[in-house]
Design brief:
311 residues, alpha/beta, five-stranded parallel beta sheet, 16% strand, binds NADPH dihydro-nicotinamide-adenine-dinucleotide phosphate
């Protein structure tokens, strides 16, 4: 099956690399901007597609993301109703995310930033050692990523809570909350808040002053969802007034983060360049093949998102 590669920010051919040869007997890729006939194209892979991208493919049936998130594809105005949007579910990616989150949670628990400052000033001074058990972590989102992160943090000894849209059955040792009331209950006990929500109309702007105020004073934010979840000025205000003691930010409204942005130089903020964890090229290639198979059988591809719900 022919498959269009659609992105104006990322070289998808380079990203998929050797995986293209591995799946070449099933998938022939076509560059979006190449002057080739496209009437037979039913499948595309996309990341930050141009606004008019999908107009070019009158017979498109499915679009695969190259990651867990699909917000950039769903927001594309040329995505017609009825086109399936497929995300990548990669357990190795979730495990990499768990390591990334653990780095920041332990960094807060053990005051890594203070050790770094002390080293810079050649100061030998022991710091108070806090147990993991004394640092409750609340995770926004209890899906593929959130569940893996929760399991890893619980193994490290942190009291872990998580929040989802729909109710979940009890899965000790993680306490799971849902709905608006559940969010309030979780925040009241949360010292480190980890955002692993998808970006939807319901979750946009959720990380705001009101939410920070409901956390334990001196709390810490680990923001790996999407930039639009965070009201940036409210974060700066919460750091200024001490409601939050710090934040690790991996995703931003403007990516790359502009050089003049105040987050870069803020002493309480750690910036990483949307690098928490990528899906592997192998997992993306497997997703493409599984989606092509489903199209050929007239079935719904695995990991098709609910376009109404937004994730
Ligand atoms: P999933 O779809 O598996 O899980 C999403 C979770 O969020 C579910 O638990 C869902 O609840 C919950 N949720 C959605 N909407 C709401 C809402 N309105 N209120 C409460 N809970 C809600 O997604 P993943 O775990 O695979 O990925 C989550 C996000 O992580 C991605 O969309 C992406 O934005 C981000 N991400 C970032 C990466 C990075 O490198 N920075 C890498 C990978 C992912 P329910 O269970 O009830 O459906």
């Amino acid at each position: 099956m022919r498959c269009a590669l659609v992105s104006d920010r990322l070289d998808l051919r380079a990203f998929l690399g050797a995986e293209l040869a591995r799946i070449a007997d099933r998938i022939e890729v076509v560059d979006h901007f190449a002057a080739e006939p496209v009437a037979d194209i039913r499948l595309a892979v996309a990341w930050n597609p141009p606004r008019d991208a999908f107009e070019r493919y009158p017979n498109l049936q499915a679009v695969c993301s190259i990651g867990a998130g699909v917000d950039g594809i769903l927001a594309c105005p040329s995505l017609r109703p009825g086109i399936d949007v497929v995300r990548v579910v990669d357990p190795v990616q979730a495990q990499t995310m768990a390591g990334f989150i653990a780095w920041h949670v332990i960094g807060h628990q053990r005051s890594f930033a203070t050790y770094r400052d002390q080293q810079r000033d050649r100061i030998w001074r022991s710091l108070r050692q806090r147990s993991a058990q004394s640092v409750p972590v609340g995770i926004l989102g209890y899906g593929e990523m959130g569940r893996t992160v929760a399991t890893h943090l619980a193994l490290l000894g942190f009291p872990v809570m998580a929040w989802s849209r729909t109710a979940k059955s009890a899965v000790s040792p993680v306490r799971v909350f849902h709905g608006r009331e559940g969010l309030g209950a979780m925040l009241g006990e949360t010292e480190v808040l980890v955002n692993l929500l998808p970006l939807t109309s319901e979750t946009q702007g959720l990380l705001n002053r009101d939410l920070f105020d409901r956390m334990r004073r001196g709390g810490y934010l680990v923001q790996v969802g999407r930039g639009e979840h965070l009201v940036e000025d409210h974060l700066l205000g919460a750091l200024e007034n001490g409601q939050l003691s710090g934040a690790a930010l991996d995703v931003f409204v403007d990516e790359p983060l502009p050089p003049a942005h105040p987050f870069w130089g803020h002493p309480g903020i750690v910036v990483t360049p949307h690098d928490a964890c990528d899906a592997s090229a192998g997992a993306v290639a497997d997703t493409i093949v599984a989606t092509a198979d489903a199209i050929q059988k007239g079935e719904r591809p695995p990991h098709t998102v609910d376009r109404e719900r937004g994730y």
